[in-house]
Write a structure and sequence with these properties.
Strand order of the largest sheet: 14-13-12-15-16-17-18-19
Helix content: 40-55%
Radius of gyration: 28 Å
Number of strands: 19
Largest sheet: 8 strands, mixed
Structural class: alpha/beta
Bound molecules: coenzyme A
Number of helices: 28
């Protein structure tokens, strides 16, 4: 059945698209629209184009990208709208995104629901609009706004759309009724096609501004600059030449790995939230408790409150509790100051927050998340106290970065309700949530955690239990190689720069200084010395022992001026490095930036493949989701597993083997999965493991 249906109301033709879940502009939709226009009765005075379900068109069908185009293309469907012998009114609710906005711009008029938004998010997929968005939008709303929308990808509100001429009216109440009334007020001659409008005025300063902005804030990404080029062309080219230029730039982006990488992440992020196997209904989680009112507890409580849950915050002392409570209050008050939240909204949220020092107050909790000090004995005590007061069904979550969730669950009655929720700091801002399934965690508890992640607007990915779970276990290999290269002759500055040039937001040494070098130091003290490469951290340890703990002490790998976070070179550090190198009798060598990137990336990839082979991660794409959302891995490289596929698994293996030959195979034994996939020609980022299936 066609997703497109029509109905006549007097002489107004109402074209309705019903293509769940989000009315993507798939082939059947495009064909249906063209057919509906062609079949319009000869006396049609106007048409309304509307979508059923939760939103107007969410854009081109991303799953069709990379496949041979099927006529009618989106541009052809838009052309049919522009050339229709009667005006067409788009009735926009939900979101009109990408192709959705382009099709609306192909209509003669736009009526919007007051809560609707319109945008050109193609850059978030490494693309630019490809069906006239960069040419029609500036003709309606001017260069400056079109440059911003096309290069930044952020949607704008209905109010802004009205102010800038994108919308012609905002529906007072019922959108369809308003659009219909609007259409009835028009006659067949009221055509006002956007493409026929004059060129927008050139705005050189806006072009310069957005180019500089893109170079700085979207470093390494090609799409924002291409979007700016296309919009800039709209000022001088006639519409046909402008559309041609846009098409060329679009096709260049579409065939580039950056777009393939970002499209991979789009689907990977939606997949990671899904559990394999039969659907399990999640538990309703409405009443939450958070134990510990430090930085993590505060961020977790704020996330839960934003998701609509009621939260009880527990800490040992009134003083700590008050401080935590105040910090949560500040988070929401800042949102009010920035105009993101109303006063009433803020009061409603804070009305759901309570504070207590008594475990007995938590008895009615649906879920408890502990965020106390990262020490298993302390965590055991917390869980023992909790088990005494909460019901048998209450989900018990530990927020831990490294600890053994199974060991914690073992001592708790009904261990199937225990799991790890690894939030990233600051927890109310960082998007990633690693959901750690213990050996006994039930499918229902896991499904509940995934749904909670979605409510908190996080990207959740499941990890099995191992030291550091997916993200930190891989990171330890990246950090190890960076530390070893430091001993072998590279400077922190060179390593940091090579990796930031690759696209990481910060290099490992700047990052270490920012986080505090004592944190890693303390963690290493608890580890079996045989379990990690001690040499890689000799310099780190020496720095901590000299009270050079990073930014907080004014020096670490770099030196810092008071009140300034800029890492400065430091001769005192050079002395430390020289001393450690000479104690180790290391003969120094020169590094190319590409050596540095390869060694760190191969470390990440090999460990990621092992994690996948062990069933700790279910999907290669889950690993990419973890790295892109929790560790700043450049989205335009798709994550470490996708990056490995881009290089080619044969080349990855050759690199790992070469490292094994040079540095020994203690850390460089190739993952068996890598060997198998390189042999079979499959992709690491598409690999899904069968092990670890849910009971
Ligand atoms: N093409 C194909 N599939 C799409 C799609 C598109 N443009 N937009 C969304 N989907 C799919 C998702 O993959 C998901 O599929 P799944 O249920 O099998 O996982 C489903 O629609 C629902 O999407 P989801 O993102 O989970 O819903 P949401 O309500 O949270 O968000 C949107 C809805 C429209 C805001 C969001 O999906 C979105 O931003 N889409 C992309 C918009 C875009 O970039 N358009 C320009 C394309 S060039």
């Amino acid at each position: 059945m066609s997703p497109v249906s029509t109905q006549l109301t007097g002489t107004v033709l109402v074209i309705t698209i019903d293509h769940p879940p989000v009315n993507a502009l798939s082939h059947a939709v495009r064909a249906g629209i063209v057919r509906a226009l062609e079949a319009a009765p000869a006396n049609t005075s106007a048409a309304v184009l509307q979508c059923a379900g939760r939103t107007f068109f969410s854009g081109a069908d991303i799953s069709e990208f990379g496949k041979p185009p099927q006529a009618p293309t989106l541009s052809e469907a838009i052309e049919a709208l522009e050339n229709a012998p009667f005006p067409v009114v788009a009735a926009i609710h939900g979101q009109a995104l990408g192709g959705g906005l382009e099709i609306a711009l192909g209509c003669d008029f736009r009526v919007m629901d007051a809560k609707a938004r319109v945008g050109l998010p193609e850059v978030t997929l490494g693309l630019i609009p490809g069906a006239g968005g960069t040419q029609r939008l500036p003709r309606i709303a001017g260069m400056a706004l079109a440059l911003e929308m096309a290069s930044q990808g952020k949607p704008i509100s209905a109010a802004k759309a009205l102010e800038t001429g994108i919308a012609d009216a905002i529906a007072e109440s019922d959108l369809v009724a308003s659009a219909l009334a609007f259409a009835k007020s028009k006659s067949r001659n009221d055509k006002r096609s956007t493409g026929a409008r004059p060129n927008p005025e050139t705005d050189a300063s806006a072009v310069d501004y957005w180019r500089a902005h893109a170079a700085k804030r979207q470093r390494g990404q090609k799409a924002p600059l291409a979007a700016i080029d296309a919009v800039e062309a709209s000022a001088t080219l006639d519409i046909a030449s402008g559309l041609k230029r846009e098409r060329e730039l679009f096709l260049e982006r579409m065939s580039d790995t950056q777009s393939a990488a970002m499209r991979h992440l789009f689907f990977a992020e939606r997949k990671s939230a899904k559990l394999p196997g039969p659907r399990t209904d999640p538990l309703p989680l409405e009443r939450a408790a958070v134990i510990g009112s430090g930085t993590m507890g505060v961020g977790i409580a704020a996330s839960l409150l934003s998701a609509g849950l009621s939260v009880k915050l527990l800490d040992m002392s009134d003083q700590a509790l008050q401080a935590g409570y105040n910090r949560i209050k500040t988070i929401f008050q800042n949102d009010v100051t920035k105009g993101r939240l109303s006063e009433a909204g803020c009061s409603e949220i804070l009305g759901r927050l309570a504070a207590t020092t008594q475990y007995s107050d938590l008895s009615d909790s649906d879920i408890v998340i502990e965020a106390v000090f990262e020490d298993i004995e302390i965590k055991h005590k917390v869980f023992a106290q909790l088990a005494n007061v909460v019901g048998e069904q209450t989900v018990l979550a530990t927020n831990t970065s490294y600890l053994d969730v199974d060991a914690i669950a073992e001592r708790v009655a009904n261990p199937e309700r225990v799991l790890g929720l690894h939030f990233f700091s600051p927890a109310h801002i960082m998007r990633l949530l690693e959901v750690v399934r213990g050996k006994k965690t039930s499918a229902m508890v896991l499904a509940s955690a995934m749904q909670l992640g979605k409510r908190m607007r996080k990207v959740a990915a499941v990890s099995g239990v191992c030291h550091g779970f997916i993200g930190n276990r891989m990171l330890s290999c990246y950090g190890r190689e960076a530390g070893l290269m430091l001993l072998e002759g590279a400077s922190p500055r060179q390593i940091d720069k090579a990796l930031t040039d690759f696209g990481m937001p910060m290099g490992p040494f700047t990052m270490g200084d920012m986080a505090g070098l004592d944190i890693g130091y303390m963690n290493r003290q608890k580890l079996d010395p045989e379990s990690f490469e001690q040499r890689a951290f000799l310099v780190h340890d020496r720095l901590v022992e000299m009270d050079r703990k990073g930014q907080k002490t004014g020096s670490g790998f770099y030196r810092y001026e008071k009140g300034d976070r800029t890492p400065l070179d430091d001769e005192a550090f050079d002395d430390v490095l020289r001393a450690v190198r000479s104690e180790q009798g290391i003969s120094l060598r020169e590094f190319d930036d590409s050596d540095i990137v390869d060694r760190c990336m191969l470390g990440l990839i090999n460990e990621g493949a092992k994690i996948l082979d062990e069933g700790i991660a279910w999907r290669g794409s889950d690993i990419d989701v973890v790295y892109a959302n929790g560790y700043g891995f450049p989205r335009y490289r798709g994550g470490p597993m996708f990056y490995a596929d881009t290089i080619g698994l044969d080349a990855v293996l050759a690199g790992i083997r070469a490292n094994a030959e040079r540095f020994g195979d203690r850390w460089w034994t190739p993952s068996n999965l890598l060997l198998r996939l390189a042999e079979s020609g499959e992709r690491l980022s598409a690999y899904e493991t069968q092990s670890g299936a849910l009971s």
